[in-house]
Amino acid sequence: MSQNQVSTLKRGLLVLEFIKQSRGITLAEVMKEFQLSKSTAFRLLTTLEDMNYIYKIQTQYFFNPKNFIEIAERRSIRDWKSLQSVYQAAQHLQMGTYLGKVDGTDLVMTQVLHAPFRHTADEEVGNRTKLHQTALGKVILANFDEGKIASIMDKMSMEPATKNTFQDPQLFRYHLKAIQDDGYAFDDEELTIGIRCVAVPVFRNGEVIAALAIGAPAAQISRGNMREIVTKLKVGSKAITREIEKFH
To answer: Which H or E run contains 111?
Structure first.
């Protein structure tokens, strides 16, 4: 391999790592970060996209975690994606619907459904966020036993995604207790400004294994319709549990 090829490979890996650490990167941002010409940056991004290491939505590039997960996790995600009750829940809720599970201190998306709710958004399945940043992650964490919560929180860095993200571990513990008492979690623009989410736990044999949530523009989720949303989510959660217990 020539020195030029090694240099190009190194640059491509640095760009990939930059995209991985970010939440949506544009061509211009890659050019600025690495002092690249437009043609060079475009060529690197196109190559990474062709190899399925990243994917593009409109003008932004995103890291594709599905190329880097272990075989066991790939099989697990395939099993989650086979669940048909999630589609029924999404049709009933008529909002963006998400199913996720915990991996370490991360929340991993296992199904993502947008209107018209007939197909899962494959490019978003496998995406990761920190547990404390999402309603999905918070509601799963809140329903673990105290020992497991403490173990996970010891490893959490509590970095913010937005100005609304919890950053104080003590306040967050109180928040988890309220979530457990309420039976659902609410994400008030804590991951993405302008988006609110509501999530409920999914149980199997009395233990929380996942969470079901809806996400929508902030104006569509309010105290006025919260009870109705939670009720529908709980119906969907129970249907998912029944399907898992019957077929998995």
So the answer is: strand 106-113
Where does residue 176 rank: exposed (0-12), middle (13-18), buried (19+ CB within 10 A)? Answer: buried
Q: Contact at 8 Å (CB) between 100 and 137?
A: yes
How many angstroms separate the CA atoms of 99 and 111, rounded? 5
Query: Do the Cβ atoms of 217 and 195 come closer than 8 Å?
Result: yes
If you ran DSSP here, which 8-state letter would residue 120 be given?
Answer: B
Instruction: Show the DSSP H helices in 95-168 as ranges.
Output: 135-142, 146-155
- The pLDDT tens digits for 94-111 are 999 999 999 889 999 999
229, 93 Cβ separation under 8 angstroms: yes
**Per-residue pLDDT tens digits for 126-176:** 889 999 999 999 999 999 999 999 999 999 889 899 999 999 999 999 999
Residue 52's contacts (CB-CB under 8 Å, 6 or more residues apart) are 64, 66, 67
| DSSP structural state of residue 114 | -
What distance in Å separates the CA atoms of residue 192 and residue 198, rounded to the nearest whole number?
13
